[in-house]
Design a protein that fits this description.
With about 325 residues, the chain is an alpha+beta fold. The protein folds into two domains: about 5-65 and about 310-335, Orthogonal Bundle (Hypothetical Oxidoreductase Yiak, Chain: A, domain 1), CATH 1.10.1530.10; about 70-285, Ribosomal Protein S8, Chain: A, domain 1, CATH 3.30.1370. The protein is built from 13 helices and twelve strands. The longest helix has 19 residues, at about 90-105. It starts with a strand and ends with a helix. NADPH dihydro-nicotinamide-adenine-dinucleotide phosphate binds near residues 123, 159, 177 and 310.
Length: about 325
């Protein structure tokens, strides 16, 4: 694979220019380009520049509102509703996350229910932002059906990612962010692009038979489907995500979402569930962090164990250029 070195500013500009050329408002282009740059900076490649062609496709097709103006209101003091106005999710987050954090700091717990949002990014930016304000955070989104529930040979669930973050007083938050599918779709597409085979247990072909060929698993290229992680247990977590990010927030589940999507290659409109909790208030103690730190210390005592989020936080310390797939950069430049 041929690569080209781009500085973080160049990555931001590449994404921003493509989004502006596709008609995005300056506010949304800047916020999405910043999310893309931070994904590349942290090494979250499947949700960085790789996503720009999809972001652009949905602006051009009109599925995503290029001039989205998300509205935020309090349903109750601890329930913040955000209608994303069919814009990209990072714009909705920029409008509602501070309100969620403020409410959680007063009442101990607060929830955001986001509707009509197009989420095409990693989820750690949301949970990490809340944890950096001293809050425990959880979020999930449902996506297009591409995962066969345990025991089925049809796509019903999205790849349904979940992210959880725990704040630390003197350290970066501990954050995990993962698809509940055996592998995120972006990684399957990257494996297909790079001609790589996948481990067994990742997916099925269109006939519902096990395969290790990413092109057969990808619903777009082979009509196949991904499996949930962890057999029936992961399948139940994927079901939970469907319910939390769908009916609980007033949105559709993945297979209903697919019916209203125009299949332009970009993300469908859907819901997001975000929960923030103040450990100081819920534990009733200022030393809420001591047992948590004891656990992290114990985990870190094992030679080959690392905490989730550590890889990204380490990558972040390097402010130098990043190697990006040359073909992808050329494709993004040609989008204008
Ligand atoms: P990974 O399997 O790469 O990683 C999952 C989590 O485990 C991460 O928090 C990662 O931390 C941690 N981790 C990975 N390897 C280790 C290890 N060896 N030891 C300890 N911890 C480890 O993530 P996925 O492929 O499942 O998901 C990738 C991204 O795709 C996520 O950001 C997700 O939000 C996104 N996604 C978004 C969708 C959307 O609709 N917007 C849909 C589906 C997925 P670390 O980051 O430090 O490596």
């Amino acid at each position: 694979m041929k690569t080209i070195d781009l500085t973080l500013d160049e990555i931001f500009s590449l994404a921003q220019t493509a989004l502006l050329n596709a008609g995005s408002s300056e506010e949304m282009a800047n916020i999405v380009a910043d999310t893309v740059m931070r994904a590349e900076r942290d090494g979250s490649h499947s949700h960085g520049l790789f996503r720009i062609p999809g972001y652009v496709a949905s602006l051009v097709s009109g599925k995503v509102n290029a001039n989205a103006d998300p509205k935020v209101e309090n349903v109750t003091p601890v329930l913040i509703r955000c209608d994303a106005d069919n814009g990209y999710a990072p714009l909705a987050h920029a409008r509602c996350l501070d309100k969620v954090a403020d409410a959680a700091k007063i009442y101990g717990i607060a929830m955001a229910q986001i509707t009509r949002s197009h989420h095409f990014a990693a989820l750690w930016p949301e949970t990490e932002a809340l944890a950096e304000k001293g809050l425990v955070a959880f979020t999930c989104v449902s996506y297009m059906p591409m995962v066969a529930p345990y025991g089925a040979k049809e796509k019903v669930y999205g790849s349904n990612p979940i992210s959880f973050a725990w704040p630390r007083k003197d350290d970066a938050p501990v954050v995990f962010d993962m698809a509940t599918a055996a592998m995120a779709m972006g990684d399957i597409q990257i494996a297909a692009r790079d001609g790589k085979e996948l481990p067994s247990g990742v997916g099925l072909n269109k006939e519902g038979e096990a395969t290790t060929d990413p092109k057969d698993i990808d619903p777009k290229t082979g009509g196949g489907m991904i499996l949930p992680f962890g057999g029936y247990k992961g399948s139940h977590i994927a079901m939970m995500v469907e319910l939390l990010a769908g009916p609980l927030v007033g949105e559709t589940v993945s297979f209903e979402t697919a019916l209203k999507d125009n299949k332009d290659g970009g993300p469908p409109a859907g819901g997001q569930f975000i929960l923030a909790m103040s450990p100081e208030i819920t534990s009733g103690s200022e030393s809420w962090d001591s047992s948590a730190d004891a656990l992290f210390g114990r985990l870190k005592s094992f030679d080959h164990l690392r905490l989730p989020g550590e890889r990204r936080h380490k990558n972040r310390l390097d402010t130098g250029p990043r190697s990006v797939n040359t073909e992808l950069v050329e494709k993004i430049r040609s989008l204008g």
